[in-house]
Amino acid sequence: MSIISSLARAVRSETSSPDNVEESLYAEKYLLRVTAGPSYDPTTHKPVFVNTNRTTCFENEFMTTQVKVRIREYRGLPRGSRAHSDYFDDPGHKRDRYSISFSFVPKQDLESLHTVWGNDFDHPVRDRLPPGFNMAVRIVKEFIDPGIECDAYADEPWLYGPSLSCWFAMRIGEIGAELAPLDDERPLEEGADGSGEHVRARLGLPHQQHKRRKHFLSAKNRETFAFEKGRVYHGDFFNPYIDFNKFALRLPGFSIGVIRYIGDKTHNLRYVFKNRATGEVYFVVVFTLLFGDDVQKAVDEDLVRHQAEMDAETRVREQTGAAVPTPPESIGSDDFSTKEFSVKGAGLG
């Protein structure tokens, strides 16, 4: 009997049809919001417009960054997000459920040996871990990403892997090039541009992404790589394993529904790019599950933000005489209303 079959048997009680129905009912009570910023501090974050060509940009003392997030069948904030991205129609991403893509330009040389990518929390979660969690980590480490390490029982739990081996696509750009807007529909291709080709050749980096990821599992190989000041770097992290619609972890052989274990309150899933040795945080992307009164509050706040943007655009058009643009078909157009995303609309009323 294979390891996956054994694990599937062990967690069968977590994946029965009644549980799947229950997970769907739980999921309807929540509304998802995505933000990103240059630090852990949420006051430094900006909204991420999911499945659109609108890029979220920010900077700190270490780098200038832009972030784009795609989520299959997205339903959430902010207004202006779309339910679908053509990214998921690409043959290489038909199974993927989400993507976090980004570009950054370091303001100083940054060593890569201790840079990590992954999830962390500022509070304990050990009392909310679902049955099968440890088995899930074993499957991820053995079959998906052998570079990850995890301590889910710490006071500030974490799951990290070396950034250079975690990112499923990585592209090295030119020095001195400006950050171009990220294309929502076109997936990032492994490779390089301009002098970035010489960097890859000099370091002997494999052309295929799976071989590059394996190459950087070695600490010795990471020691030879530095994120150069002024050079553009691109990355894309994607997979088919997290279902944000049902808040479930779907691994080969079984699924683990996690929403029942997070409690009826706001909860965050936080991705971070940081230097684990120095504690330097480069950028953070946060998926927030809003529940109860927090749903209505967030919708109202987003309405204020959205109206302020509309008013600002109107003033610019009046001053320049520009034509009124046709609004895109999106969650942020007429189909998005406070009624739809009210507490009652979220399945709580």
Automatic annotation (TrEMBL):
Region (Disordered) location: 314-349
Domain of life of the native organism: Eukaryota
Domain (Domain of unknown function at the cortex) ranges: 32-289
Any coiled-coil regions, as ranges: none
Membrane-spanning segments: none
Listed Pfam families: Duc1
Name of this protein: DUF1769-domain-containing protein
Lineage of source species: Eukaryota, Fungi, Dikarya, Ascomycota, Pezizomycotina
